[in-house]
Amino acid sequence: MQPPLRIAILETESPTPDFQSKYGSYGDLFIRLLSSASITLNTNPPFRTDDLQFSKWDVERSLDYYPDIEEVDALLVVGHQDHLGPTSMDSTPWIIKLVDFVRKVLMEQDRVRVIGVNYGQLIVGRALGCAIDRMPGWEVSSTTINLSEVGKKVFGRDHLSLMQLHRDHVVTLPVNPFPQLPNAILEILGDSDHCAVQGLYTPRKVIALQGLPELESGMMTQLIHERLRQGQMAKDVANDAASRTSLRNDGVHIGMAFLRFLLEP
Q1: What is the enclosing helix (H) or strand (E) of 76?
Q2: What is the pLDDT of residues 145-189, one digit of tens each?
Q3: Which residues of 109-136 are buried (b: 16+ CB within 10 A; e: fewer)?
C-alpha cells in the first residue's frame, strides 16, 4: 500500500464518561498511538503523520454504520468488552453484523487489511473460525508476551510488554482459515502465562493482538478501578493488577509493527 493510509476504526464499545473526558474514545487512543508510531517509523521514503487518515465508526450502537470498503485501506477493530461467552457464539445482532462484515473483508478481497486489538482479536478470530472460550479469571495489567518465531520477525524482538484486560480468549485456530487461499496460514504471534494465543497473523491479510498497546499507566489504573467498582473484578485481583500498571508497555513499538504490516507491498 502507498500512503495516505485510510484507516477505518470500528469501535465496539464506548468508555465511561469519566474515562472519555480524560482520554477520549478508544478510537482516539489508537489515533494517537499510530500517529506517534508514524513519527519514529523508519521507511524510505519517510512516512509522515499526515500520511494517515482516520475515520471512526460506532458499530455497537449503529447496526448500519459501516465504512465503504472501496474508500478505506484498513480496518482496525477495537474495544475492551467481554461479550463473547463460553460458547463463543453470542447472538447479539450488532456482534453478528460485525463478525459478518469482518469475515467478508477477509474472504472476499485482498486489498483492505484488518487489525484486531483485544475484543477486536476475538472478532477476527470468530470471523476466521477460531474457537473462543472464557478463562477462569482475568488477565489484566502489564504482562510479558513470549513471541513465537513468527512474532519475533513481526516485532523484531523476543518478548513484548503489553497491557491486558480480558477474560475471553482464542483457544484454537481453524485448519483452513482462508478457503479461497489454500496456502495462507494463520499464525500465532505469541503466548503468555495465562493465554496461549496472544496474537494472530497472516501476512498482508490480518494481524491481531489480545493485549492493549494503546493504554498508558493512568488509563489502565482507571479501567481496573472501574471494574472493581462494578463488581466485575475481585479486590485482590484489582490490587495486584494496579501494582503493575507502571511497568513497561511497548505500545509505540507495536504501533510501528502495525504500520509496517499495512505498508508491506
Answers
A1: strand 74-78
A2: 999 999 999 999 999 999 999 999 999 999 999 998 888 999 999
A3: eeebbbbbbbbbbbbbbbbbbbebebee
Mean pLDDT of 6-12: 97
Closest CA to 160 of 258, 31, 24, 238: 258
Give the DSSP per-residue string, 196-252. Answer: S--EEEETTTEEEESS-TT--HHHHHHHHHHHHHTTSS-HHHHHHHHTTTTS---HH
The whole-angstrom separation of Cα 136 and Cα 149 is 28
Q: Domains plus CATH for the chain?
A: 5-132+168-215+250-263 (3.40.50.880)
37-73, pLDDT tens digit by residue? Answer: 999 988 877 788 899 999 999 999 888 889 999 999 9
The pLDDT of residue 58: 95
Sheet holding 131-147, edge to edge: 159-172, 131-147, 190-191
CA proximity to 259, closest of 49, 58, 107 = 49
Nearest-5° Cα angle at 230, 18 to 141: 75
Strands 113-117, 159-172: pairing is unpaired
Residue 82 cell numbers, joined: 467481554
Looking at 41-92, list the stretches that DSSP marks H as alpha helix, in order from N- to C-terminal side.
none
The pTM of this model reads 0.96
> Which residue(s) pair with 5 in the sheet?
52
For the chain, what percentages of helix, strand and coil (3-state, to nearest 5) are there? Answer: 35, 25, 40
Cα(172)–Cα(163) distance, integer angstroms: 22
**In this structure, are residues 99 and 132 in contact, taking their beta carbons and an 8 Å threshold?**
no
